[in-house]
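queue> pop job 88
queue> type: inverse folding (structure -> sequence)
queue> payload:
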């Protein structure tokens, strides 16, 4: 306001000086009013322009925030895709590697399973179900057939106590000890008849489920190779649960899965043999004993009856 008043006084001074010459003293008031009107309008215009500038700057800030969020989402999606592609490559490289010993045992295991399936073998543990549905009987039969091929095979049982990280548990699987290579020494080959099911999760993401489907259903390989698979799958499971914002169960952690196959085990080569038979060879029922109406076995009808031999004279 001080600047505006100063300018008005200056205009009045000029008008007073010019008034005797022009002879029009009444024009000073109109000039002042007009000047004041123009001055107020310029201030309102400046205020409007400043407010519009603030609105534009706010809009630009919002657009910048949206663009930054969009870039972050795109980077997150790209990072996620890169992670799962890397996991697929790592898993494939581990599965594809195989030594001649592993390949021989794997082929013998596949042949044994094929023969068991074609023979429609029924387990003999008392449940009278298909052998493929009885895990223990299937392991025994596979181990027996591998022994017939000359392999030093056994059923292994691992058992561990609970700790702060994992709960207690136990697991059984088949292994083969090979001593054919004098340079490498003894090689231990693990046989897990249903490896894929060990890593399946009911609420797994599509990326994790695709990784699980790449696992072989029947795994035959060295302990070191199985350890690498455990590491890859457990890291992928952890990533999956983190993306879904869910808690990962302790039975899915790497330490728990390692205890299943890589922990201290009890190796049993002399298991109790169970009687296995094929569905194609029907078991004949026992013949029913026929009794005549004229001859009745009193001992069967009257089990409490006792005969007393006569005393000798």
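queue> result:
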């Amino acid at each position: 306001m001080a600047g505006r008043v100063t300018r008005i006084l200056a205009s009045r001074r000029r008008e007073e000086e010019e008034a005797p010459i022009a002879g029009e003293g009444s024009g000073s008031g109109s000039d002042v009013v007009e000047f004041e009107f123009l001055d107020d309008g310029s201030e309102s215009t400046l205020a409007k322009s400043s407010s519009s500038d603030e609105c534009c700057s706010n809009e630009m800030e919002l657009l910048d925030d949206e663009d930054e969020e969009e870039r972050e989402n795109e980077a997150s999606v790209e990072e996620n895709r890169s992670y799962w592609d890397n996991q697929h490559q790592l898993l494939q490289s581990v599965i594809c590697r195989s030594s001649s010993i592993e390949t021989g045992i794997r082929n013998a295991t596949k042949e044994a399973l094929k023969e068991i399936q074609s023979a429609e073998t029924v387990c003999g543990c008392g449940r009278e179900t298909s052998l493929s549905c009885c895990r223990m009987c299937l392991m025994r039969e596979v181990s027996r057939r591998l022994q017939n091929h000359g392999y030093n095979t056994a059923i292994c049982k691992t058992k561990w106590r609970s700790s702060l990280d994992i709960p207690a548990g136990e697991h059984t699987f088949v292994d083969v000890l090979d001593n054919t290579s004098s340079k490498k020494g003894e090689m231990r080959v693990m046989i897990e008849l249903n490896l894929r099911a060990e890593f399946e999760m009911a609420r797994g993401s599509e990326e994790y489920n695709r990784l699980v489907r790449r696992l072989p259903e029947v795994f035959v390989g060295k302990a070191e190779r199985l350890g690498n698979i455990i590491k890859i799958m457990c890291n992928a499971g952890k990533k999956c649960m983190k993306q879904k914002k869910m808690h990962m169960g302790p039975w899915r952690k790497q330490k728990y899965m390692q205890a299943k196959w890589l922990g201290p085990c009890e190796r049993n080569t002399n298991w109790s043999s169970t009687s296995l038979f094929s569905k194609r060879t029907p078991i004949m029922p026992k013949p029913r004993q026929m009794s005549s109406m004229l001859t009745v076995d009193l001992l069967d009808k009257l089990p409490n009856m006792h005969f007393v031999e006569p005393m000798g004279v």
